[in-house]
Amino acid sequence: MYLVLVVLWIIFNGQFTVEILLFGLGISAVVYWFMCKFLDFSVAKDLLMLKELILFLWYAENLIVEILKANVQTFRILMSNQFEPEPVIVKFRTDLETTTARVLLANSITLTPGTITVSLEDNEYLVHCLDKELAEGIEDSSFVKILHKMEELRARSRK
Predict the structure, then answer these.
(1) 34 and 55 together in one domain
(2) If exposure means fewest CB atoms within 10 Å of the residue's CB, which of 10, 50, 112, 131 is most exposed?
(3) What is the mean pLDDT of residues 41-51?
(4) H or E segment at 51?
(5) Are the C-beta atoms of 127 and 118 separated by less than 8 Å?
(6) Domain count, the chain
(7) CA–CA dist 131, 73 (Å, integer)
(8) Distances (CA, A) of 53 to 47, 80, 138, 157
(9) Torsion over CA of 92, 95, 98 and 103, rounded to 10 degrees?
(10) Cα-Cα-Cα-Cα dihedral sign, residues 113, 81, 83, 128
């Protein structure tokens, strides 16, 4: 957060000199001290937010890659004359603990072309897939692994 404050100071100044940088470092330090003392901020929480940001960016990158791969598969299925799609409904459970992680997984599945989350109750998902090929490995996808890491990080920070 301290670095964010320094960068904002430089951006809002509109110019960059050594004096502005030094003054910004000082002002940002005072503001950060105030935030730590009165607004329940700390260096540990800042590091946690940075780790969560890194995991979220990893998740977003993974989601984009999976969307692109599913686009290619779906396009191939729809444009093939010899291949007849075999729609399937898959039911699976996860051991994700938080509602946020469960909903994020359901939305990620729905965002991926060729699949849609029909229902989510507790930890049980019901997913419609355009073809059985799209359903392979859905219950232990990379989304679930990253969401587990996010939950572990959050759980460790609470202790």
Answers:
(1) no
(2) 50
(3) 81
(4) helix 43-79
(5) yes
(6) 2
(7) 10
(8) 10, 40, 25, 14
(9) -20
(10) positive
83: helix, strand or coil: coil
Residues 9 and 69 in one domain: no
Q: What is the pLDDT of residues 9-18, one digit of tens each?
A: 888 888 888 9
Torsion sign over Cα 83, 86, 92, 94: positive
Backbone CA torsion sign across 54, 57, 63, 64 = negative
**Do 94 and 123 contact (CB within 8 A), yes or no?**
yes
Arithmetic mean of pLDDT, 46-71: 89
Task: List CB contacts of 154: < 8 A, sequence separation 6 or more.
Answer: 52, 98
129 lies in the same domain as 111? yes
CA quadruple 8, 9, 10, 11: dihedral sign: positive
Distance between CA 24 and CA 139 in Å, rounded? 49
Q: pTM for the complete prediction? A: 0.73
Q: Is the pLDDT of residue 158 over 80?
A: no
Q: Are residues 16 and 89 in the same domain?
A: no
Both 18 and 48 in one domain: the answer is: no
For position 159, what pLDDT does the model report? 63
Q: Do 29 and 48 sit in the same domain of this protein?
A: no
pLDDT (tens digit per residue) in 99-111? 988 999 999 999 9
